[in-house]
């Protein structure tokens, strides 16, 4: 590098002054897409990834935390890890609450400060309730791992399932995200769910209701929609879609949101690879849906639906 050449900063070299001015105008006025035109604080994907890592380590210390823990150190480790994760979570919850329909929109001055205090206290209350639900969440996750061990002949141990199975990771992210949804921070839950999707290739909307002992084998390409309801001991294989058949619109042509539009899958159902199940239909308990089936109508309990049968209907 020639030290005699004058340093050319990026803004000078590329004549960025007018570009920066135009981008500021777009950001602040012409194309302002901030929530309510003003919200700048967004939940952080990176921090949320750290939070889920911490929660995972607190729930399963030797699998996702430290393998050298013993009976004397494990509770201290869990307490410290959980404190750090929850301290981080409360700030992310506070940010996400800004995107709630009930969040204040136009307060300023002292009113804005009071509303900030209200949001902060609500965030702390939600985080405390989330912490209280962790033992129940862990029980559900243990049932999911046990279902994988019982349902996959290739599985040799719980440790293998927890460390190597993308379905297990996806379900862990979903259980956390669904809990956050139920506690009133669906935006934060969507970010958590999308991180899980990025890691595993499995896309589960945090609004989906999924019973215990849930197993996703292989898993890549699985999609479960927002209003889907899955019972106990459901097993899915890769590329299964539990989706919507159509999207109703109102008189103005806008999508009608929040209505049930995804399948109900009852207890003990197995759905094999590539099956696509659409609409608010019910798959009866104990049914088996074969690979690559396209299904848009309910089936009674104990049904066995194959691709050949669907071609003949």
What key phrases describe this protein's structure?
313 residues, alpha/beta, five-stranded parallel sheet, 11 helices, 14 strands, 47% helix
- Strand portion: 5-15%
Low-confidence stretches: 3-8
The Rg value, from CA coordinates, equals: 24 Å
Largest sheet: 5 strands, parallel
Annotation field: number of helices: 11
Question: What is the topology, as strand order, of the major beta sheet?
Answer: 1-4-7-10-13
Question: H/E series, N to C?
Answer: HHHHHHHHHHEEEEEEEEEEEEEEH
Q: What would the average pLDDT be, to the nearest integer? A: 90
Tell me the distance between the termini.
74 Å
| Outline | globular
The computed structural class is: alpha/beta
Q: Total strand count, please?
A: 14
Helix fraction? Answer: 40-55%
Structural account:
With 313 residues, the protein is of the alpha/beta class. The protein contains eleven helices and 14 strands. It has helices at 10-13, 17-30, 45-59, 61-65, 74-97, 109-132, 134-151, 158-164, 166-182, 186-200, 307-311, and strands spanning 203-204, 209-210, 215-216, 223-224, 229-230, 235-236, 241-243, 264-265, 270-271, 276-278, 282-283, 288-289, 294-295, 304-305. It has a five-stranded parallel beta sheet. It has a five-stranded parallel beta sheet with strand order 3-6-9-12-14. It has a four-stranded parallel beta sheet with strand order 2-5-8-11, with no helix packed on it. Helix 3 (45-59) packs antiparallel against helix 5 (74-97), helix 7 (134-151) runs antiparallel to helix 9 and helix 9 packs antiparallel against helix 10. The radius of gyration is 24 Å and the shape is globular. Mean pLDDT is 90; it is low at 3-8.
